[in-house]
Each structure stands twice: as C-alpha cells, then as structure tokens.
Design a protein that fits this description.
By secondary structure, the protein is mainly α. Helix content is 70%, strand content 0%.
Length: 454
C-alpha cells in the first residue's frame, strides 16, 4: 500500500473535504498553540493551589508550620526543572508560580511540535494531511492531558511526554545517542516513561529490522531499567506486588475510558477505589488495549500493536503511586497519549476517507472540526478547576462524592485559618467516607493534632 503523500494529486490529498490539506505546517502549529493557550489560560492565571504552595520550591506566603510534615521527594529531572525556573523567578510569589505554569505549558507545546516534526518526517511533503492535523489537534486539546501541564505537581509527566515525542523522532532518524539521552531524561522524570520508551524502541526495531535498530532498542530497554532502579530505588515486597497487581485492570480500564471518552473534570483516584470490584463493562474496557494490539498485529501493523500495548503499560505506575491525597490521575495519561498519537501519525491516512464522496468527506471534516471544538471547550472547563483550590475542591467532591480527599482538604483549610469547628467536622466526614490511604491517614492525624481532635 503506498504511503501517504507519495503522490500529491488531488485524489491523494482530498480528505475531509480539504483538497490540499494544511499547506503550511508552521501555520498549523501556531493555530494549535493559540488554541491550547486559549483553553488553558484559566489554569495559567489562577491563584496558587495547595499543591503549588506545598510542592514548589519558592517563598511561601504563609508560615512554615504546615500540617504536611514531610516535604515531597521529587524525581531528579523534576527537581532540577523546578529549581531552574525558581532561579529565574522574581521574588513575588504569584509571578513565580505563573512562570512555573508557563514552563509546563512550554513542555506541552514542545511535545506538539515534536509530533508535528515526526509527521512531516514520516510523510514528506509541503502539507499536513487533514487526518494527521486532526490527530495533532486532539492530542493538543485533550482535556485529560491538561493536568500534565496545568498543574505544577505534574511537571514530571510534561517532561515525560516531551521526551517520548523526541525519542520517537530520534528513532525515526536512526540517531542512537539522542535517543539514549532522552531515555535518561524521561526515566528520571516519570515512572511511566520506562515501559513507553521500551515500546517505542521495539516498534522501531520491528519497522526496520536491522542490527543497529535492535541494538538501539536493547540499549533503551537496559537504560530505562537501570535508570528506574536508580531514580526510584523501590524494593517492594511480595505483598506489595500482589496488591498493586490487583489494581492494574481497573487502572487500565479508567485510563482507556478517560482517553477515549474524556471528561471535563480531572480525575482523582485513591487506591481504595482501584481495589473495588469491576463491572462487566469495566472488564471489557480494560481488555480493549490488548484486543486492539492483537487485531493490529494480525493486520501486519506490528509497530502500532506494540505502541498500543505500551500505552496501556505506561499507566501501570498508577497502581503504585495512587496512594496520595493531592495527586490526580490524569497526569499519568500523558505518556499513553503520546504513544497513541505516534501510532496514528506514523501510519498513512485511512484509505476509506479517500473512497468517500466529496459531500461525505465534507461531512466527516465537519465532524472532525466539531470534535476539536468540543475538546477545546472541555479543556477550558477543566482549566477552570485549576484556578483556585475552591474550584478544584468543588469539582472533585461533585464528581467523586465518596472520595475523602475533598473533606480532608476542607479540614486543612479550616485548620489553617483557625476555624477549629469546621476542621473537626470535615475531618469526621473524611473518616466516614471510606478507608484512608496511608498518606491521607498521616495528613488526617496531623490535622487532628492541630485542632485537638482525637
């Protein structure tokens, strides 16, 4: 089957009713950047969130007597990025926080640019096919990815996404040294990078079965494994492995649903919810990545099959790191979204589009534009949840009423402002909502000590 744009005839480029595609890739990139900036603007200009005050190494506008007793332990690349931006920040706290937000946004836009470069490298020409432009737009505006660049605590996932996109481009050009350097950077930024990087290396080796590509794939796998052991250094027990394995199907199910059917509210997922029994629909959703990989493998699209399976494996760290009060779930979808985008962008445009009549192509094109508008609207709504702690708390408690995180946050704010009665009431509500994770229990005991609650 011929690759896309080997012929620039009207028949080969007439898709979605646009006969010539997007002639200037730079214009497409500028449009995507403007759309992302418009949708994410509330998150970039809002008040500092609780996590911003607690996690970012900046001057704090409140006393150090924080109920969070222990500071977080960042991955090496995340710590360096925070300190690099903090060194360039002025003394005013709010402006410094906005610079941190802009740094995360720049990483997201860098990922979009690298994916566009990959598209142009895979399909040479002076235009971007509308199908690939739709894929790039969906990735740039997907509301489930907004947390990775709209929330400062998710800086590692923004670094992971940019590293994965750069790794895919380096593997396409056969450059082993940049690929290994990006592997080191990504693995030092996010625990989900290692399986995604291995999937990219294996897909490249399957596409170009040469000795050099195999050596590069093996080097990426070994580098990811060794760097992960050095960066995270976890020695889980057998009980921990069994407990984490029980959460994996539900984590994959929720990740698949969030990417395919996005919501406008960032998901919060404590580990007790991952341990709940799954319905038949959730089991089917969890099996979809495996079924899609088998289907693609039988259709001789082995590279795409490996990438889809790697996207599912890249969310597995959620099974371990879901034990948190402040961390969300959507941040762990960034690596999976990059792999799925690479799987779509590396292939030519679907042949069934060119087989449609011109009127049907215009209808399909209109549906594609409507989809991007809907994703942008949902991303804008998601960004409003990051404007302040109150907005985030309202969205979280409305979407997940059984999650005790919202009530713990209420208790923390009340204790911080001296409202002992409200702090005690919210603390009791949190304890009645369900089993607290170890992190939540530690925070609850700190709040109880501060307000004199047993």
């Amino acid at each position: 089957m011929p690759r896309a744009w080997e012929s620039h005839s009207p028949a080969s480029c007439a898709a979605f009713g646009i006969r010539s595609g997007v002639r200037r890739p730079v214009l497409l990139l500028l449009l995507l950047c403007a759309a992302v900036l418009l949708c994410a603007w509330p998150a970039l200009t809002g008040d500092p969130l609780l996590d911003d005050l607690r996690l970012v190494p900046l001057l704090r506008p409140f006393p150090r007597a924080d109920v969070f007793a222990q500071p977080p332990r960042w991955q090496p690349a995340v710590e360096l990025s925070f300190r690099a931006v903090a060194a360039l920040s002025p003394q005013r706290f709010v402006i410094a926080v906005q610079l941190h937000h802009l740094a995360s946004l720049a990483l997201h836009l860098l990922t979009v640019w690298l994916l566009l470069r990959l598209t142009l490298a895979r399909h040479p020409g002076d235009r971007v096919h509308p199908w690939h432009a739709l894929v790039l737009g969906a990735f740039a505006l997907h509301p489930s990815l907004l947390e990775s660049y709209g929330h400062l605590a998710a800086r590692g996932e923004a670094l992971c996404a940019a590293s994965l996109a750069g790794l895919a481009l380096s593997l396409h050009h056969g450059r082993a040294a940049p690929a290994l350097a990006l592997t080191l950077l990504g693995t030092a930024a996010s625990p989900g990078f290692a399986p995604a990087a291995v999937a990219l290396g294996l897909a490249a080796a399957l596409e170009q079965p040469t000795a050099r590509s195999r050596r590069t794939a093996l080097a990426i796998a070994l580098t990811s494994l060794l760097t992960s052991l050095l960066a995270f250094g976890a020695r889980p027990s057998l009980d921990d492995l069994l407990r984490w394995s029980m959460r994996v199907p539900r984590a994959v199910s929720i990740a698949t649903r969030a990417l395919v059917v996005p919501t406008e509210t960032a998901l919060r997922l404590p580990h007790w919810e991952l341990s709940l029994a799954m319905s038949s629909a959730e089991r089917l959703t969890a099996a979809l990545p495996l079924l899609a990989s088998v289907f693609l493998w039988r259709r001789q699209a082995r590279g795409a099959a490996v990438l889809v399976l790697g996207a599912a494996l890249s969310v597995l760290p959620l099974a371990r790191f879901a034990d948190s009060l402040a961390y969300g779930f959507d941040r762990y979808l960034a690596g999976a979204a990059v792999l799925l985008a690479v799987a779509l962008l590396r292939e030519p445009s679907p042949t069934w589009i060119a087989a449609l009549s011109s009127g049907t192509q215009r209808l399909v094109g209109g549906c594609g534009v409507a989809l991007l508008v809907l994703l942008g609207f949902m991303a804008r709504q998601t960004a409003t949840g990051f404007t302040s702690d109150s907005h985030q708390l309202d969205a979280m408690t409305q979407m997940r009423p059984r999650d005790p995180s919202g009530h713990l946050r209420n208790a923390w704010f009340a204790a911080r402002t001296g409202d002992v009665v409200s702090a005690r009431r919210s603390l009791r509500n949190a304890r009645r909502r369900g089993l607290l994770t170890p992190t939540m229990d530690r925070v609850a005991r700190s709040i109880a000590t501060a307000v004199g609650e047993r």
